[in-house]
Design brief:
Blueprint (H helix, E strand, L loop, with lengths): L1 E5 L6 E6 L6 H8 L4 E7 L3 H13 L4 E7 L8 H13 L7 E6 L1 H13 L5 E6 L2 H7 L4 E6 L2 E8 L4 E5 L8 H18 L1 H9 L1 H5 L3 H21 L14 H10 L7 H18 L5 H13 L12 H10 L9 E7 L2 E7 L2 H10 L4
Parallel strand pairs: 2-9, 3-4, 3-5, 5-6, 6-9
Antiparallel strand pairs: 1-2, 7-8, 10-11
Helix pairs in contact: 1-2, 3-4, 5-6, 5-9, 6-7, 6-9, 6-11, 10-11, 10-13, 11-12, 11-14
The chain binds nicotinamide-adenine-dinucleotide (NAD) and zinc ion.
Zinc ion binds next to helix 11.
């Protein structure tokens, strides 16, 4: 087992990464001093498998634990599911000493996280991520949110977990496409902060895609280390944390224009990173060879690098302007200088952006 500490003053927590780590959740709650009542919010698709494992581990410590499954899919990040959770928490008589465990992908993490952030003005949250995306991104850093019909993540809160357990054994049942989508975020960490991680991804593609636990544990650990480092320096996105948005400016535009259906988030990020690198080459910030290296790595992991032909640039641009991260109608980019280093707050003229989007459109 390897651990990363998110060293936030007064609310530091550990991210434990390892195969089989979920079996230790009960003892972990003892160490945290958690109360007797535990709500285990989980993705309905994994309630019977990992849900049972975690419930057993928690019950073995003498705690009362109840499984609260939510339907799989983004639609569960809703006011309706949130209200249902609050009512369940009340029925279970959770108190200020109780813990909410979020076992699942980013959907469960964000929903259960927001419920824990707000119920009784905030109770303990333990993240037990079961997708690669959630292990390397959503479970660490304290952002929680639900969606509204008019947009994603519009209602949320910062609520740091007390503990994160990334059990890479859970990734064995993850659909390969979901695994690859999570790898887009891992590649992102390599580009923004760690050339050695990028090189590791180049070298170890076969073992990673085959789902070898050791290889997965290594990339999850390295990713969490980078995210923890960034979040510790900038918890609420006032500065450095913006580097985590690399690939997400165009990525979110593509995601919104595609109606959050056809493409997975990580796939949109892959397209967004390709766009950011192309912009960086055009503005003279990045060497073409480095952009090519990123494109090759994305392709090596079966990720898309072209904008689907049916999406038009205008729709993507309009969606980017609506994004809550764009201020005063000006679109700011995180652009790579080389593999392992980026610059934030780059202003890009609309024409250049439109050109690049057109260039990246699949024929
Ligand atoms: N809070 C943050 O900082 C943050 C960061 C990134 C993304 N997010 C959010 O995360 C969500 C996306 O997360 P995601 O990609 O994990 O999606 P997800 O939670 O929808 O999971 C993807 C799919 O995998 C299934 N699944 C989960 N674990 C499984 C397992 N071990 N085996 C088999 N199937 C499994 C789920 O049922 C689902 O169908 C989005 O809502 C996004 O907004 C939040
Ligand atoms: Zn992302």
């Amino acid at each position: 087992m390897r651990s990363v500490t998110v060293a936030l003053p007064g609310r530091a927590y550990q991210v434990d990464v390892g195969s089989g780590a979920l079996a230790g959740v009960g003892e972990g709650l003892d160490r945290l001093g958690s109360g007797r009542r535990v709500a285990l919010v989980t993705d309905a698709a994994i309630a019977r498998s990992f849900g049972a494992t975690v419930a057993g581990a928690v019950a073995a410590t003498g705690r009362t634990v109840e499984l609260l499954p939510v339907p799989s899919g983004e639609a569960s990040k809703s006011l309706r599911e949130l209200e249902r959770l609050y009512l369940e928490f009340a029925r279970l008589r959770l108190d200020r000493g109780s813990a909410v465990l979020a076992l699942g992908g980013g959907v469960v993490g964000d929903l259960a996280g927001f419920a824990a952030a707000t119920y009784l003005r905030g109770i303990d949250l333990v993240q037990l991520p079961t997708t690669l995306l959630a292990q390397v991104d959503a479970s660490v850093g304290g952002k929680t949110a639900i969606d509204l019909p008019v947009g994603k993540n519009l209602v949320g809160a910062f609520h740091q977990p007390r503990w994160v357990v990334a059990d890479v054994a859970t990734l064995a049942t993850l659909p390969p496409r979901e695994l690859r989508a999570g790898l887009a975020e891992v590649i992102k960490y390599g580009v923004i902060a760690d050339a050695a991680l990028f090189a590791l991804l180049e070298r170890e593609q076969a073992r990673i895609l085959a789902g070898e636990p050791e290889a997965l544990a290594e990339i999850v650990f390295q990713s969490c280390r980078i995210k923890a480092d960034v979040v510790t320096q900038d918890e609420r996105e006032g500065g450095l944390r913006a580097i985590l948005n690399y690939g997400h400016t165009v990525g979110h535009g593509v995601e919104a224009a595609a109606g959050y259906t056809g493409l997975l988030h990580g796939e949109c990020v892959a397209i967004g990173m390709t766009a950011a690198a192309a912009i960086a080459v055009r503005t003279g910030l990045l060497a073409q060879a480095e952009a090519d290296r990123q494109r090759r790595l994305l392709q090596l992991y079966g990720l898309p690098i072209a904008i689907p032909a049916e999406l038009d640039g205008e729709a993507i641009l309009a969606a980017m302007r609506l994004d809550k991260k764009t201020r005063d109608d000006e679109i700011h980019f995180v652009l790579p200088r080389r593999i392992g280093a980026v610059e934030i707050g780059c202003r890009i003229p609309g024409e250049l952006l439109a050109d690049v989007l057109e260039e990246l459109r699949a024929p």
